[in-house]
Amino acid sequence: MRFGILTISDRSFRNERPDTSGPALEKAVISHGWQVVKTEIIPDEIEFIKIKLIEWSDSEQLDILLTTGGTGFSPRDVTPDATRSIIERFTPGLDEAMRAASLLVTPHAMLSRAISGIRKRTIIINLPGSPKGAVENMQVIAPVLEHATQLLNEDPRSEKGH
């Protein structure tokens, strides 16, 4: 599977803080034998986020687009809002699974506004901005991602997963 990892962080974009979540996610993706084909850091600006999500999804180069950052309650946390505005179909089961698993680790999981959905044939998944939270959430949904992309692409192999 082909992944894109989009880090959304004002401070990392301005080189005031190193991006640790993007590289942690990249390592996790590769550990599953999947490929990371795009990575980028952008600021917490709703229009920038929307443009990048559309560009990456519509390019048909990615099966999964992971975002990290901007999913909380801060006024600058607008990743879910940008995502909601450009997806065509929601995938609430992924969100519910991640929040349920995260609640076993921390009550702060209730403060996540992260969402996921489909645009064209790309699954977009918002993940927390912390490396630990991002990787933990990705690992929760990892077992279904290959089957999800098969279904989305009408791959005949998807029937074997039922």
Question: Describe it for me?
Answer:
There is one protein chain. The protein has one domain: MoaB/Mog-like domain (Molybdenum Cofactor Biosythetic Enzyme, Chain A, 3-Layer(aba) Sandwich). The protein has 6 helices and 6 strands. It has helices spanning 10-13, 21-31, 46-58, 79-86, 92-103, 131-152, and strands at 2-8, 35-42, 64-68, 89-90, 116-119, 122-127. Strands 2-1-3-6-5-4 form a 6-stranded mixed beta sheet, sandwiched between helices. A hairpin with a 2-residue loop joins strand 5 and strand 6 (122-127).
Task: Set out the fold topology.
Blueprint: E1 2-8, H1 10-13, H2 21-31, E2 35-42, H3 46-58, E3 64-68, H4 79-86, E4 89-90, H5 92-103, E5 116-119, E6 122-127, H6 131-152
Parallel strand pairs: 1-2, 1-3, 3-6
Antiparallel strand pairs: 4-5, 5-6
Helix pairs in contact: 2-6, 3-4, 5-6
Supply database-style keywords:
162 residues, alpha/beta, Molybdenum Cofactor Biosythetic Enzyme, Chain A, 6-stranded mixed β-sheet, 6 helices
